[in-house]
Amino acid sequence: MRQNKSKMIPFVKAHACGNDFLILEETVAQRRHAEIARRLCARNTNVGADGIEFVERKEDGSFFLRLFNADGSEAELSGNGTRCVAAWLAKSEKLNDVVFGTHGGQRTCHVVEGNDPFYLIESEMGVPRVMPRSIELPGVGVVAGAMVNVGNPHFVLFVDTEDFSAYGHSWQQLGGMISTSPLFPHGTNVEFVQVHSPSEIAFRIYERGCGPTTSSGTGTCASSAASIALRDTSRELTAIAEGGAQRTVWAANDAVMRLTGPAEIICTGEVFAL
């Protein structure tokens, strides 16, 4: 049976180091954000993505972003998702500097280089807060790490294993246990960090509401902030995830952290509405 064209939802798909997002105008949501996210983000039965950025255009010309994860849960913000929206606006509206409101605070993006569909973008990511913390998990024991807030919550562990495993578990297993632990009523993102040198770290991410991901902008910032505060690394770091490297600069503890990384527009299209 042919579908009526009016029942189609336009979307943009973009990724930052493999961390992929759909971008939808807020006007299509009609209070069904969670439902739309669960359906459209499904990898095998729909477009597929780690989450959806819903873009609201304010009357004063500013933008507000609402992020919904693949499982339908709402998060405060995504560093990579915000950068993907900035890349889309650079492509579609020639905006090289844009300020976004999010539930995790205001974020500013600047296009450093643009060669459609690839963009290199620097983002102001707020002032990180790092607090050393040990937690106790059933069947695991005491896990030492740090709680880091960069507009959304993270728990960072330092590891020295080649495969990022810790406490007798793979990082994916342990990340899932920590992320959904009752110790974090609203869940938390989890990063496993190797310090390679004073200027370079590598990490793996278990993302709240999504699971293992190839990259995370806020995860990059949280991993960098914890390394600077607790491992005395340089305040300018290259942070390498499975999807590639990003660059962070944190000039002082009370300064805004800057994150520079790529974003690529994958496609635009339409998908059947619910």
How do you describe this structure in short?
The chain is built from four helices and 17 strands. With 274 residues, the chain is an alpha+beta fold. The protein folds into two domains: 130 residues, Diaminopimelate Epimerase, Chain A, domain 1 (Roll), CATH 3.10.310.10; 127 residues, Diaminopimelate Epimerase, Chain A, domain 1, CATH 3.10.310.10.
In words, what does this structure look like?
The protein is of the alpha+beta class and 274 residues long. The chain folds into 2 domains: 5-123 and 262-272, Roll (Diaminopimelate Epimerase, Chain A, domain 1); 129-255, Roll (Diaminopimelate Epimerase, Chain A, domain 1), CATH 3.10.310. It contains 4 helices and 17 strands. The chain has helices at residues 33-40, 79-93, 171-179, 217-231; strands at residues 8-16, 19-25, 51-57, 63-69, 74-75, 97-101, 107-115, 118-124, 129-137, 141-149, 153-158, 189-197, 200-207, 211-213, 236-241, 244-249, 258-272. Strands 1-2-3-4-6-7-8-17 form an 8-stranded mixed β-barrel. A hairpin with a 3-residue loop joins strand 13 (200-207) and strand 14 (211-213). The chain is globular. The model is unreliable at 1-5 (pLDDT under 50).
